Structure formats: structure tokens, C-alpha cells
């Protein structure tokens, strides 16, 4: 069995580890010059020095929003640290340590971008380009495991009247540091993890920041004194004036969209038979296995999860199946199971955007236990999901202090105000 793994982020690394230890041949294709994916920081936005798209949504000063105790792998914990909420560099170091410990670097082809994947009979033709020389290579694999992340194709809505706005308009994907917002009146749109975190970061230099959103829980927590809440935007009514759905208006110098990302697999040819409807990837059995062509697998599609632990579990599941240690149900059964999952989600009130969401404890644990049971492998211990639940609760109830340390606000005179 020859396996191609796309991406050397946390998902690709743990997949490589399990594929290698299952005695399959593998190549890992990574378009960046280092491993780590999300956790590899670059100042670059747009295109890199070779003229290829930059893969990065990471910004300076990011610290994890989940404690390190649930960010390790099943057999490889994050080493002891003073703080549970680590920096980007600490997580990157951890991923490098993981790759070194399990001797994974030798499998990774860096600076190598996958351009096309197409089925040929029951195999896969994978075409890559080596960015520095632009040399294209095509090779054939028995299986492809897609680990390309899902924070790379930003959703940027167009606001009514947006053409009138003369200030900065950008998406969190291109955000690297707050400096360009110094002294400015900033509107952040979207109150997901990035929207919240960037509101706090930008508020340290901006005159004021407004967080526009429709998430009731976000209003109940405390923010720095120069942060305001508004509902959704109705329209732009002038070169700097924004009207909200409650009829109120305010003026801004910058709009920062924190409106999330869509799933995106630009390298899959149409003949792969995969449909991506912004937030819903089909037809995937258990959010992982391409039902019509089961040697194509996806690691990391579900969100609101114990990230690295789930990638590890999914990779172990996929290896069980690829090595022949476990049979998948028939295509018809897989299809019925997947349709039932969608129906259950609709009954539970999940939106179209939440077809791959795991979220709060019981749902998340049920998914892990199901994979564990079907493949006869260890599930994720329930204590991890309990810590995940507690961590999210802690974050939402005190955005400023949830990491347990003091929050520092630096004003234009470099005066540091510490909120206890
Ligand atoms: P990625 O880390 O995105 O890696 C995908 C890799 O695939 C990249 O290296 C990319 O270069 C490569 N790739 C993509 N396309 C191609 C191609 N065509 N050819 C070759 N290579 C390709 N999770 C947490 O658990 N805790 C947090 O605190 C947290 N904070 C986050 C903060 C931000 C700003 C973001 C964006 C995400 C955060 N996450 C967090 C989620 C994070 O994405 C996951 O933790 C995890 O790193 C995702 O790993 P991945 O391997 O699935 O994807």
C-alpha cells in the first residue's frame, strides 16, 4: 500500500506516524518550507517568495484557547510547562518534537504543493509542483489522505454599500499584528474564536473596537473599556459610516472580517466526485472516508473538537481499514449512516454551517467512542472531553482572564494597565 498524505500540520504528522507504523509506504507533501501548518508563523500575506499562495492564518501573540493538557497526541503529551495555554511557538516546537521523536521528517517533501489529484482505475494520480524550481511531478498511490486543514479559504461577505467605505477592509486570515490599527476606530465582524481574540488584541492599540455579531453569549462577558458590542451590520452608509440592524450608526477607519473559512480542496479534480458546499463535505462516512472511493480519506474535517487527539484517533481508524484489519460497511450502509447523521443534526437544530460540528461533551464523546468501537482501537478518554467542555465554558465566561493570567492593555503612551 502506497499512501500520499497532503499536508504536514498536526493532522498530517499524526497520520504519517500511524501510516508508517502500520508498515505502509508513504510520502507527505507539504507546500510550506516547514512543518506545523497553522502553527507555523510567517509575516507574508498573499503570495510567498516563489509566487505561490501563502498558507497561514497565524498571527503574532496568539496563545491557544484550549489548555495544553488536551492538545497532545494519544501517546505523546505536551511536556510540562508553567502555563496551560501555550504560545504559537511552543505548539510549533511541540509538533517538531513529535516529528523528530517518531522520525517523520524523512517522509516529508517540503515546498511541494499538490496541484491535482485524480482517480485512475482504483488508484490515485497525484501531481505536485516543487515551488523553488516549478518542476512538476506525477506519481501514483493506492490511497490519498487529505490533511490540508480548513482555515485557508476565507469567507468574505460583501456588505451592502461596501464600495463607499474608504478605510481598511481585511479578513483575519491576513492579520499578523495589531500595529496597522493603532489609534483607529475598528469594526470587527464575527464573534468566533478569531473575532474575540483579535478584538482583544486590536483593542490594545486602537482608539476603540466594536465587535459586531449575533451570538448572545458573547455579550455576557467583560471586555476592555474601549470595546463595544453591536448587532449585525445592516449596510455601509458613507465613506466611514456603518449602520447596524438595530438602526444605530457608528464611524470606523477599518473593518476586520472574522467571518470564518470554507472547506476547500482546490487540488481535487472533478472526477474525484467530492462535493464541497462551503461548510459541508460530501459524501464522507464518519466525516472521513469518501464513500464512493474509500481509499480517499480526510483527517481533521470535524471542528469544535479536541483537535490533535481527534486527528490521532481518525488516523488510527483509517490505518486499521487501509491495512485490511477492519472492513468498512457497504457503500449503501455508509450512505444511510451519513444521511442519518445529517438528519439527526437537523433535528438537534444544527444549521447548514454545522454539519461537521462536534461541540459539547456528549456529541463529541459519542463520535470518538463510535470510531473506537468500530475500529477496535482506544477512544479518547472522557476526561479529555470534560476538560474541553470546562475550557470552553471558562473561555466564554471570562474572555479576558480565562487563561489564568493578568490581561495587559497598552495605551498610546505605552502605559500598561493590568486588569486583575
Ligand atoms: P493545518 O495546521 O492547517 O495544516 C495543513 C497543512 O497542509 C499546512 O501545512 C499546509 O501548508 C498544507 N497544505 C495545504 N494545502 C496543500 C497543498 N495543496 N499541497 C501541499 N500542502 C498543502 N486548535 C486548537 O486545538 N487550539 C487552539 O488554540 C487553536 N487556535 C487556532 C488559532 C488559529 C488562528 C487558527 C487558524 C486555528 C487554530 N486552531 C486551534 C485550529 C488548528 O487549525 C488546529 O489546531 C490544527 O493545527 C489543524 O491542523 P491540520 O493539520 O488539520 O491543518
TrEMBL record:
Keyword hit for Translocase: no
Superkingdom classification of source: Eukaryota
Keywords: FAD, Flavoprotein, Monooxygenase, NADP, Oxidoreductase
Coiled coil (UniProt feature): none
EC number: 1.-.-.-
GO molecular function, one term: N,N-dimethylaniline monooxygenase activity
Cofactor: FAD
Family the entry assigns: Belongs to the FMO family.
Protein name: Flavin-containing monooxygenase
Amino acid at each position: 500500500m502506497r499512501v500520499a498524505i497532503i499536508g504536514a500540520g498536526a493532522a498530517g504528522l499524526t497520520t504519517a506516524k500511524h501510516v508508517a507504523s502500520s508498515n505502509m509506504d508513504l510520502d507527505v507533501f507539504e507546500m510550506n518550507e516547514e512543518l506545523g501548518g497553522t502553527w507555523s508563523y510567517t509575516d507574508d500575506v498573499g503570495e510567498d517568495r516563489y509566487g505561490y499562495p501563502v498558507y497561514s492564518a497565524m498571527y503574532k501573540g496568539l496563545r491557544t484557547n484550549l489548555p495544553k493538557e488536551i492538545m497532545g497526541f494519544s501517546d505523546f503529551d505536551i511536556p510540562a510547562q508553567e502555563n496551560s495555554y501555550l504560545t504559537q511557538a511552543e505548539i510549533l516546537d511541540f509538533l517538531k518534537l513529535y516529528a523528530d521523536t517518531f522520525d517523520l521528517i524523512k517522509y516529508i517533501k517540503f515546498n511541494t504543493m499538490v496541484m491535482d489529484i485524480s482517480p485512475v482505475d482504483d488508484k490515485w494520480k497525484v501531481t505536485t509542483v516543487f515551488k523553488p524550481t516549478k518542476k512538476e511531478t506525477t506519481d501514483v498511490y493506492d490511497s490519498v489522505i487529505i490533511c490540508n486543514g480548513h482555515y485557508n479559504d476565507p469567507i468574505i461577505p460583501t456588505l451592502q454599500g461596501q464600495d463607499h467605505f474608504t478605510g481598511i477592509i481585511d479578513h483575519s486570515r491576513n492579520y499578523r499584528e495589531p500595529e496597522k490599527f493603532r489609534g483607529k476606530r475598528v469594526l470587527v465582524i464575527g464573534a468566533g474564536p478569531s473575532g474575540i481574540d483579535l478584538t482583544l488584541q486590536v483593542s490594545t492599540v486602537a482608539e476603540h473596537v466594536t465587535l459586531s455579531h449575533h451570538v448572545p453569549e458573547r455579550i455576557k462577558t467583560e471586555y476592555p473599556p474601549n470595546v463595544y458590542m453591536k448587532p449585525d451590520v445592516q449596510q455601509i452608509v458613507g465613506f466611514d459610516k456603518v449602520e447596524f440592524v438595530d438602526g444605530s450608526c457608528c464611524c470606523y477607519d477599518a473593518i476586520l472580517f472574522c467571518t470564518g473559512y470554507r472547506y476547500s480542496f482546490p487540488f481535487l479534480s472533478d472526477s474525484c466526485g467530492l462535493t464541497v458546499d462551503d461548510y459541508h463535505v460530501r459524501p464522507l462516512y464518519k466525516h472521513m472516508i469518501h464513500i464512493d472511493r474509500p481509499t480517499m480519506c480526510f483527517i481533521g474535517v470535524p471542528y469544535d473538537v479536541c483537535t490533535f487527539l481527534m486527528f490521532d484517533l481518525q488516523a488510527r481508524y483509517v490505518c486499521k481499514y487501509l491495512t485490511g484489519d477492519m472492513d468498512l460497511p457497504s457503500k449503501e450502509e455508509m450512505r444511510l449512516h451519513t444521511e442519518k447523521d445529517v438528519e439527526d443534526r437537523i433535528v438537534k437544530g444544527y444549521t447548514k454551517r454545522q454539519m461537521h460540528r462536534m461541540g459539547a461533551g456528549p456529541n463529541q464523546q459519542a463520535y470518538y467512542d463510535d470510531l473506537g468501537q468500530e475500529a477496535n482501537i482506544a477512544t479518547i478518554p472522557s476526561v479529555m472531553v470534560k476538560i474541553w467542555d470546562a475550557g470552553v465554558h471558562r473561555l466564554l465566561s471570562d474572555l479576558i482572564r480565562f487563561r489564568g493570567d493578568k490581561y495587559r492593555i497598552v495605551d498610546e503612551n505605552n502605559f500598561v494597565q493590568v486588569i486583575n
